[in-house]
Amino acid sequence: MASINLIEAFQDFKDAENIDRPTMMKVVEDVFKTLLRKKFGDDNNFDVIVNAEKGDLEIIRRRMIVEDGEVMDPLAEIAYSDAVKLEPDFEVGEELYEEVDMLDFGRRAILAAKQTLASRISDLKKNVLVKKYSDRIGDIISAEVYQVWKKEVLLLDEEGSELILPKSEQIPQDYFKKGENIRAVVRRVDMKNNTPVIILSRTSPEFLAKLLEIEVPEIFDGLITIRKIVREPGERAKVAVESFDDRIDPVGACVGMKGSRIHGIVRELKNENIDVINFTSNTQLLIQRSLTPAKISYMELDNDKRHAEVYLKADQVSLAIGRRGVNIKLACELTGYELDVYRDNEGEVEEFDIDMDEFTDEIEPWIIEALKKVGCDTARSVLNLTVEELERRTDLEKETIIDVRRILKEEFEKE
């Protein structure tokens, strides 16, 4: 028999659907040409013919027929007397095609070739896997839970490739059962003992970003951009969004009607609280928004040291800090400022406050808007700052600021 059964090796190729047929043929050809070089010293006059459907292979040797005694290269030429023994009709000058019997290589050489082929196929499959998932880093995928261990979960994708979800990349409330499908984002591709290990994550900000992209068409279309995401997995997340279209409210679009868009994400993240805030380049306003749901009274900002002292009413301090300090920690990460929270101890004077929008009949709306942009959205927050401080922070004239403060003071005196 002049062929070698390679069905098992070809089956490996078939299983690895991403390996194309030309690549398969090239690998098989390379392996057996190496075998030919070991036996004959050269492979130029040999053709390796692969039949992938049947799983077999043939090697054809080509030699030119020359006159007896004129053979200069035994690998490329054959004497006429030797050629006619194979086929009487041959003539000098013709090319002789002869099938090489695999048994001539010996059992050991054939076994080594099959092992080399299996190894090459394995390497190809690894390379395909690495390229596939290296290109998908940051993308969300769905995979089936195959095995649950103490420190990690083994998952299988639609092609049966193994993926790893470490404990450190799981939300604390995550609980998985074999056979269920879960969503995660591709975090990185590691190499361990020359084997690719695909690491997934459910705790990274990218996972939340991709979930938002799926749920909010405006993000997918590029009308709304996510400026920054900070997370304490399973506890709270803060998302700063910005719209490129003035007609679109980025926060409203992300939350959806009655929270319809955000609810699905919250469920996926095991009831993680998600604060979506409107991004602004105004540092004071960004800090104020980042401390949601707490409402601040006023703040003292040091841009050089990137530090802010935030003052709040007694009942707002715990909201600003949050459970286990999560809220203020995330606010610091989102704004890039070190925030210190203080209780506003001004006794009875601080028992009530008035929203600046209540003064629209006495103060021009554009003046109120200018004050709100620097975080002064209540009468107290304006009066707590000096005329010079307000003049420095806003574009308002000194006389305008004095007049505004007079109106606000009169209102409190009435009270």
From TrEMBL:
<comment type="function">
    <text>Participates in both transcription termination and antitermination.</text>
</comment>
<keyword id="KW-0804">Transcription</keyword>
<dbReference type="InterPro" id="IPR036555">
    <property type="entry name" value="NusA_N_sf"/>
</dbReference>
<dbReference type="InterPro" id="IPR025249">
    <property type="entry name" value="TF_NusA_KH_1st"/>
</dbReference>
<keyword id="KW-0963">Cytoplasm</keyword>
<dbReference type="InterPro" id="IPR012340">
    <property type="entry name" value="NA-bd_OB-fold"/>
</dbReference>
<dbReference type="InterPro" id="IPR013735">
    <property type="entry name" value="TF_NusA_N"/>
</dbReference>
<keyword id="KW-0889">Transcription antitermination</keyword>
<feature type="domain" description="S1 motif">
    <location>
        <begin position="138"/>
        <end position="203"/>
    </location>
</feature>
<dbReference type="GO" id="GO:0003723">
    <property type="term" value="F:RNA binding"/>
</dbReference>
<dbReference type="GO" id="GO:0005829">
    <property type="term" value="C:cytosol"/>
</dbReference>
<dbReference type="InterPro" id="IPR030842">
    <property type="entry name" value="TF_NusA_bacterial"/>
</dbReference>
<dbReference type="GO" id="GO:0003700">
    <property type="term" value="F:DNA-binding transcription factor activity"/>
</dbReference>
<dbReference type="GO" id="GO:0006353">
    <property type="term" value="P:DNA-templated transcription termination"/>
</dbReference>
<protein>
    <recommendedName>
        <fullName>Transcription termination/antitermination protein NusA</fullName>
    </recommendedName>
</protein>
<dbReference type="Pfam" id="PF08529">
    <property type="entry name" value="NusA_N"/>
</dbReference>
<dbReference type="Pfam" id="PF26594">
    <property type="entry name" value="KH_NusA_2nd"/>
</dbReference>
<dbReference type="GO" id="GO:0031564">
    <property type="term" value="P:transcription antitermination"/>
</dbReference>
<comment type="subunit">
    <text>Monomer. Binds directly to the core enzyme of the DNA-dependent RNA polymerase and to nascent RNA.</text>
</comment>
<comment type="similarity">
    <text>Belongs to the NusA family.</text>
</comment>
<keyword id="KW-0694">RNA-binding</keyword>
<dbReference type="InterPro" id="IPR058582">
    <property type="entry name" value="KH_NusA_2nd"/>
</dbReference>
<dbReference type="InterPro" id="IPR010213">
    <property type="entry name" value="TF_NusA"/>
</dbReference>
<dbReference type="InterPro" id="IPR009019">
    <property type="entry name" value="KH_sf_prok-type"/>
</dbReference>
<dbReference type="InterPro" id="IPR015946">
    <property type="entry name" value="KH_dom-like_a/b"/>
</dbReference>
<dbReference type="Pfam" id="PF13184">
    <property type="entry name" value="KH_NusA_1st"/>
</dbReference>
<keyword id="KW-0806">Transcription termination</keyword>
<dbReference type="InterPro" id="IPR003029">
    <property type="entry name" value="S1_domain"/>
</dbReference>
<keyword id="KW-0805">Transcription regulation</keyword>
